[in-house]
Structures are given as structure tokens and as C-alpha cells.
Amino acid sequence: MVIGANPAAAHPVFASQMKRRLRQGAKLIVIDPRSTEMVKSPHVEAQYHLKLRPGTNVAIITALAHVIMTEELHDAEFVAQRCDTKSFADWKQFVMRAENSPEAMAAVTGVPAEEIRGAARLYATGNNGAIYYGLGVTEHAQGSTMVMGIANLAMATGNVGREGVGVNPLRGQNNVQGSCDMGSFPHELPGYRHISDSTVRSQFEAEWKCTLDPEPGLRIPNMFDAALDGSFKGLYCEGEDIAQSDPNTQHVTAALTAMECIVVQDLFLNETAKFAHVFLPGSSFLEKDGTFTNAERRISRVRKVMPPKAGKSDWEVTVALANALGYPMHYNHPSEIMDEIAALTPSFHGVNYRKIDQLGSIQWPCNEKAPNGTPTMHIDQFVRGKGQFIITQFIATTEKVTQKYPLILTTGRILSQYNVGAQTRRTENVRWHSEDVLEMHPHDAEERNIREGNWVGIESRAGQTVLRAVITERVQPGVVYTTFHFPESGANVITTDNSDWATNCPEYKVTAVQVMPVTQHSEWQKNFAHFTEDQLALLHAEQLAPVGSASN
Amino acid sequence: MDKENLVTMANQIGAFYETMPDRAKALSDIAEHIKKFWDPRMRRELLDYIDQPGEQALHLIPVVTESIRLNRAKL
Questions:
Q1: For A79-94, what is each residue's pLDDT tens digit?
Q2: Residue ranges of the domains in chain A?
Q3: A→B interface, C-beta within 8 Å
Q4: Cα–chain-centroid distance for residue A425?
Q5: Which of A211, B20, B54, B72 ranks highest by number of CB atoms within 10 Å?
Q6: What pLDDT score was predicted for residue A479?
């Protein structure tokens, strides 16, 4: 079951492995508002495509659970042995309510009840049922609730803890897993340990010879709010382009403008660099040693094949910055950083570069209990002990369609461009995809007198932008879709500040909009073009200035 | 911080936990979530908001207000 993900476009390595299994006879259920390549393409034909309305994932997952429980398709033995009895009873009672039936939920999701029933039966009775999900799950106001709903479904059907099953997030970038493992959340230390844990914190304090704040820090959207009230003044932004990638661009740029010191470290002068006070050159994956960790917790080596063009690898720049700020930091090689991680993080105790080289890669946890790593987790018990079922009440997003904004915009990626395109739209890949376009259903286009290739204005509660229209039945009536690979598209000018209740992950996948034919770019796009011209002119002047001249 | 955003975030957290069967645990979990994941300045502003007399506190859903009042010392 693939939910809210289009691996053919965004995870091609995984997609090729999945296609191999499909050719061998595996069945496929796709839950996605669009008819993606995962629904039907060479070597792929989904048995079920639940083409839901954007923002209704939780309604669908609960309806699937309703069918499984009312038709007694669950794995009672697994639940009895491995799961918490009380929470299972509460959850069972909840999902079996009539209001959670596929018939009742059809009005919300737009998916015919029989399709949900068929998909539920296939998942529950297919022997090995694996769920893969992407940003189409997490980038919602109820993203976390949906992940809990997926875990409920996998536990109820006994599809956890052995090869070929499980709950598998397809990460947004190649090393998201690795970043999360290393405590890149503002409340965590490496190994997913909360900063308020004084025992853990004291180990890091002893190693780093400093005192750590026991309180959580700000998440990115909260940083922007705090910048606007003057209490957040500086940002070190490494390998990320928040001015393009974050929602409600005008809010983001206002926040960046309000900060006193922005340091950007990147391969390119990206959109955020236009707001930077200091720019530090980044290094590509070919210019540094290190590791990437993928979605299956697999730690693989990254090997330097050429010296960094800018003189330093990324980690060396960070070390130099720390030293310049007065905090002595020294490592001779990234392997020493891994040794420090291993010493401080129980799930990494057994990891070192020598072992990664010997084994090829290592899936954590890797420690005294699992010296060669852990390919499959949750085999005999869950990390917390008994599996806990959580009630997943569907709560509609506040981003509602109205007469003024009658369509739902959702976003995604294309194979030839990567994320905000910083690394790919400067390449020949633009021959395949040279601009972001707006996909809309023929009915919606006809109602608005829009034809293929017309410029259309897309207006939301946050802003307005203009794209070229592509008329297609890939999207359902009432839904429009675009990619976000080009900054001038302004896809995030229209996305809103809505975010997930637990993580604050922005709700990129649901924005109420109106679409109308236009003849010129939006005001934001015109301002963006002027701003970019000004920035490039300043950069050009700086490059021509004699060495040693004063600069701003 | 944008108070309207903080209220929205707190209400979203409250709406999730409100559906849990154990009301006392839900009230405790709401405060616990805010304590674990909100920067201190956000928590402070939320407490200030609750302390303000008048209509504004009404924008918080009751389960959030109750949770914060019960667990104020933690926050």
C-alpha cells in the first residue's frame, strides 16, 4: 500500500525495486489524490486507487480499519501477544462506529465505499502487507495522526516485525533519516532523546565541555514568527533553501529581512542567500567524506572523490565557524565525529567507519545486542514494549474551500528535478522540465474558459502567483496540482501557515485556491524578478570591485 | 510571537487529545506536549494569553484552557 507518495517521480531507486516485486506478482493499493505513475504505467497497475480528496487521509485510514475490524480480518493472535489490550479495545470500539464506515466517510473522502472495502480486504488478507508513505501523508495538519493511523492498521493486521511488511516512510531527501537520527530537532539529542533528560544531557555536556539548555528550541515556522517580533535574530542555514521551500513565502522573506545575521552555507547562491549577511561555500557529496542514512536506517559511506572546490568540506566549515565563535572544536576526519556519535548514542554504539567499510552498510540499532546492525525492527517486541493503539479522529483542516477559493491546490515533484531544484535546474535537466505548471481537470478548465498552455492566476488566502495551465484528468475535478522546482513559480507564495499539530510540518498538500485566466505575471512575481535583478547587479558590482575595496 | 498562531497550535493539540478515552490523561498529555515541544517563550506567551481577562481566552478551546490551568506549574 503506497500512501501519499509517488516513488516513480520522487524515489526512483525504491520505485525500481517496487516495480520488480510488482512484476513478480505483488498487489498494489495506491492512496493519492492524483493518478500518478504508481497507479498505471509500464510494469505498474494498481489493484486499487483510492483517489481521495486532499486533506482526508485520516478519514480513509479509519475507514480501512473499520472494514478490517467489522469483517474480523485482523490478526487477533498478534494483537493479543504483542499489543496493549486496553488501547486496542478502545481503538476497536472507535473504528467500528458507523460514522467511520466507508459509506459514511465517502462524503468526506470522495472515494466510493466499495473501493475502500476492497482495498482493506486486500491489505488485511495479502499475507505480507507493507505500507510505504511519503510527504503526501506528513505534510498535512493531521499528518502525525495519519502516521498513527497507519501504525494502528499494521499492528491490527500483524504486519509488523518481519521481512516484507511494516510501516515504511519514504523520506523527503536522501539523508532526512540521518539528520533526524542526529538530533536535528530543536528538542532532541542524537538517538531521539529529549533534551530535558538530565542524564543524557550530562553525557553530552561532559563530552562537549559546555552547559546545554534543557529547554526545547524553536521549530522553523516558530523561528519566523519570533524573528518578526524581534526575539530571534540570527540563523545559520546549511544546505537548505528556506526562502523557496517554506510555505507562505512573503511571511518567510519578511522574517528573513527582520533578522540581524543570516549565514548561508550552500553549493549555490540560492534564494535564501539573497537575504544572507554572510555566505559560506558548501561542498557537494563528491567533495566530502561522511555518511548518508536512508529510510531503512541504513548507514552508508559517502566517499570524497575530489578535493572541495571551495577549499573545505561542509563539516570543516562548521568546525572553523565554531572555532571563530570561540568554541574550540577539532576533528581530523569525519570518522572521529562518528566515533563521538557512537560513544554518546546507544543505538550507534557499534558503528564506526571500519565496520561500515567491512559490511558495506549498517542498519541501526548497531550495538552490543546487534553487533552487525538490525535489518528488521520490532521482531519480538516494540521499543516501548506492548504496541499502543491510538484513536485517530478525523478533523478537517481549517483550510476549507469556499465560493471565493473553490479549488484545492496540492503539490508534488517530478523525476527530473530535485526538491526546490537548487541542484538540478542549473543542469541540462531543464530540457525535461523547464517550468512548473498547474495541472487542472478539464471540467474546471472549461468552467473558467482556460485552455492548455494558458497563463492562469492562482490565488489563495496567502498570496497569488501565475503559472501555465496543463489540462489533464490526472487530477480530479476540484483539485489542482503543481510542482515547486523553480523559485519564480512562487508555489509557496500561495501555500499557507497551516501545519501539523504535533510536528509543525507545513501543510503543503492542502491550499484552497481560485484559478482564473490572466495575461501577466502576479505582483509577487514582478517584485521577485526586480529583487533578483538587483541582487545579481550588486553581486556583479562586488565581483568587479578592486580587491580591498569596502563592501556592504 | 504571533498569539493567533499560538492559539491555533494549542487548539490543534487539544483537538487531538480530546478524542482520547481517558480524559484525565488527555488533560495531562496536552500540557506535556506543549512542555516538551514548545520553546519557553511560546509557553510564556500562551500563559500570558490565558491570564488576560475578557474575550480572548475564549479563542482557546475548553480542553486546552482546562489542561493549562491544571498543569500550569509544569509549563
A1: 999 999 999 999 999 9
A2: 2-169, 176-363, 407-532
A3: 90, 141, 144-145, 186-187, 194, 196, 215-219, 222, 225-226, 228-229, 231, 391, 393, 395, 398, 497, 499, 501-502, 504
A4: 20
A5: B20
A6: 98
User: What confidence score (pLDDT) does residue A543 get?
Assistant: 80
Asked if B15 and A395 come within 8 Å (Cβ–Cβ), the reply is yes
Residues on chain A touching B21 (C-beta within 8 angstroms): 90, 391
Contact B37 A225 (CB under 8 A): no
Beta strands, E only, A381-510: 407-412, 437-440, 455-460, 464-471, 479-483
Give yes or no for a contact between A270 and A264, defined as CB atoms under 8 angstroms apart.
yes
Q: Are A149 and A92 in contact (CB under 8 A)?
A: no
Q: Would you identify the CATH topology of the domain A176-363?
A: Rossmann fold (3.40.50)
Q: Domain total for chain B? A: 1
Q: How confident is the model at residue B55 (pLDDT cuts 50, 70, 90)?
A: low
| B13 interfacial to chain A (CB closer than 8 Å) | yes
The model's pLDDT over A265-305, given as tens digits with 9 standing for 90+, comes to 999 999 999 999 999 999 999 999 999 999 999 999 999 99
The CATH number of A407-532 is 2.40.40.20
Q: Which domain holds residue B8?
A: 3-74
Q: What is the mean pLDDT of residues A179-195?
A: 96
Answer whether A2-169 and A176-363 agree in fold.
Answer: no
pLDDT score, position A544: 77
In the predicted model, what is the mean pLDDT of chain A? 95
The interface predicted TM-score of the complex, written ipTM, equals: 0.96
Distance from C-alpha of A75 to C-alpha of A64, rounded to nearest angstrom: 15
pLDDT at A552: 39
- Superfamily (CATH) of domain A2-169: Dimethylsulfoxide Reductase, domain 2 (3.40.228.10)
Within 10 A of B25 (CB to CB), how many other CB atoms are there? 12
